[in-house]
Amino acid sequence: MIPGRFEYHAATDVDDAVRLLAEHGADGKLLAGGHSLLPMMKLRFAEPAHIIDINGIADLRGIREQGKALVIGPMTTESAIIDSELLQRRCPVLPEAAQLIADPQVRNRGTIGGDALHGDPGNDHPAVLMALDAEFVIRGRKGERSESVDGFYVGPYLTALDDGELVTAIRIPTPAEGHGYAYCKFKRKTGDYATAATCCLLEMEGDTCRRVRLTLTNVGPTPLRATDAEALLTGSEPTAERIEQAAQAAMSICNPAEDLRGSPEYKTHMAGEMTRRAIHKALDRARRG
Q1: pLDDT tens digits, residue range 224-236?
Q2: What is the pLDDT of residue 40?
């Protein structure tokens, strides 16, 4: 199908983008990489009257370390995430997840902000950023604020971002040295959304799991954080029995919709399997330092 009629605006900087958003309100939509918005426009699921292109704003790109945090511009492409030496060294789960998104053509154009801010429960970055305790830095006509990723997603394609607001940065507390990480994704074919996926981040102290984060992709209306599963592992030795209990706890919070990727029961089962794999993989990496 062909998108509905719209007026195109090219924002020159962040202030100009905020002005355009405030001017057009709910009728205005931001254009980043376009891989989420344009297909919805072609299907007439989204019919914005104004498109605000932010591709020309250099300040919204880049990856840097700032104090004890990593700061990523929302217009940073997936390919730049994968190629970043800083992220490979400090936060390797992000490049790992980005490599599982779509295909090279999409990754060269698609952005972390487009994936993370669209509110699509099938997108990969939301669960990964939730596991990383990340926050979004948000600008609007009333000034700047920060919003934790955990709690940002309120429903399918619904977020805590208000009309007229723009995310200017993604801030991630730098993970501890030697932490374990994994993003395990089950999909039907290369480039597909996850049937189910799990992100695991953990820190070990001897044989004890000192800290753990477990989050799930595409098995609910939003990314899910498996807090009961985390509690089962935290402060304990991650034995095979404990890991199985954590996988069962993760499965208990799943509420996926039936679609071409499978039934709710099948997706829930695969969420449990991805959780087992992610915990084992993260543990192995943590133990190897």
Answers
A1: 999 999 999 999 9
A2: 80
> What is the layout of strands, in order, in the sheet containing 135-140?
63-66, 69-72, 166-173, 135-140, 143-148
Question: Nearest CA to 127 among 164, 152, 162, 158?
Answer: 152
Residues in CB range of 208: below 8 A, 6 or more apart: 235, 236, 237
- Are residues 36 and 114 in contact, defined by beta-carbon separation less than 8 angstroms? yes
| pTM for the structure as a whole | 0.94
Q: Tell me, what's the pLDDT at 205?
A: 96
Name residue 196's beta-bridge partners: 186
* 163 in the same domain as 81: yes
Place of tokens 């998104």: 101
| pLDDT at residue 26, rounded to an integer | 84
Q: Record the tokens describing residue 66, joined without a space.
A: 């700032």
Q: Residue 205 belongs to what domain range?
A: 180-288
Which pLDDT value is given to residue 36?
75
Structure tokens at 19: 């002005």
| Neighbouring C-beta atoms of residue 231, cutoff 10 Å | 13
Would residue 1 count as lying in a domain? no
Q: What is the pLDDT of residue 38?
A: 79
> Does residue 209 contact residue 168 with C-beta atoms inside 8 Å?
no
The CA-CA-CA angle for residues 157, 72, 28, to 5°, reads: 40
Segments in the chain below pLDDT 50: none
Does residue 111 lie in a domain region?
Answer: yes
The structure tokens listed for 96 are 């790992």
